[in-house]
Design a protein that fits this description.
Elements (H helix, E strand, L loop, with lengths): L12 E8 L2 H12 L2 E4 L8 E5 L2 E8 L11 E5 L3 H10 L3 E9 L3 E7 L5 E7 L14 E8 L2 H12 L2 E4 L7 E6 L5 E7 L7 E7 L3 H10 L3 E2 L3 E3 L2 E7 L5 E6 L4
Parallel strand pairs: 1-4, 5-8, 9-12, 13-17
Antiparallel strand pairs: 1-5, 2-3, 3-4, 6-7, 7-8, 9-13, 10-11, 11-12, 14-16, 15-16, 16-17
Helix pairs in contact: 1-4, 2-3
Length: 255
């Protein structure tokens, strides 16, 4: 089911947001790429902007609070039923707490953490805001994977924080890839070990109907796109928005 009305289980990627230098330009780009509409909150809330699909929130963008920032990425938030306890586990596992834990109005409670490899992510304890209300369908979040040169420490960290179980990927035996599974066995993403990675970062993939068409839309809207390619699970392209934010779009292959 792609429409959600209740809180996701602990450890599930539940929300994504992006801080960028130019909100209007971002809305133009992502509106053209995904057909999103936007709910811009007032200045006292930092013009935090909900990205809407069929009137439901699927992501958020906002003016970056750091005017000197030059690197931008989609930040993923993992669901938790106790933000403070999860942040404490992250610290005890060797990570660090960047901000929080803190309440966000009546929306929920959040913290931003950094794992032992340097990758950043968020924690989200839902209040009135449950996170993405549409997932796993075109123009919505499809999956998140961590790419790092230190896959072993990364696996240890996220098991300690979220209680994941780990599975190798028999479909890609030549790749250092580990599935992360919630305690109910549901796969929520994975860790990719890449010895050439110079940074550790959680990546974001959005589902689309047609990867090639999405790549063309991205270029027409002022971004760039890598050449779409086929892999075992579908067709994928890497997209870069006008600010240098990289993410992927993916679709199941058709016969």
């Amino acid at each position: 089911m792609s429409e959600l009305t209740t809180t996701q289980p602990t450890g599930t990627p539940t929300w994504i947001d992006l801080g960028i230098p130019d909100l209007d330009r971002a809305m133009t780009f992502y509106g053209a790429l995904f057909g999103w509409e936007f709910d811009v909150w007032p200045a006292e809330y930092g013009h935090y902007t909900q990205c809407l699909l069929r009137g439901r929130p699927v992501a958020a963008i906002r003016p970056n609070p750091n005017p000197d920032a030059t690197v931008f990425w989609w930040n993923v938030y993992f669901a938790t039923d106790d933000c403070d306890a999860a942040a404490a586990r992250a610290r005890d596992a060797g990570g660090s707490i960047i901000t929080g834990p803190m309440d966000v109005l009546d929306q929920g409670r959040t913290a931003i953490i950094k794992d032992t490899t340097g990758a950043q992510c968020g924690l989200w304890q839902a209040g009135t805001h449950i996170g993405c209300q549409i997932v796993n369908e075109p123009s919505a979040l499809l999956r998140n994977d961590l790419v790092t040169a230190e896959s072993g420490p990364a696996r240890d960290f996220y098991v300690a924080v979220f209680g994941y179980t780990l599975d190798a990927n028999p479909d890609l035996p030549e790749v250092d890839f580990t599935f992360l599974r919630r305690q109910d066995g549901h796969e929520i993403g994975g860790i990719v070990g890449d010895p050439h990675a110079t940074t550790s970062r959680w990546g974001t993939m959005f589902q689309v109907d047609d990867v090639d068409a999405a790549a063309r839309r991205a270029v027409a809207a002022g971004g760039t796109a890598g050449e779409p390619y086929d892999m075992i699970y579908g067709r994928v392209a890497n997209i870069t928005d006008p600010f240098g934010t990289e993410f992927d779009v993916g679709a199941a292959m058709t016969n």
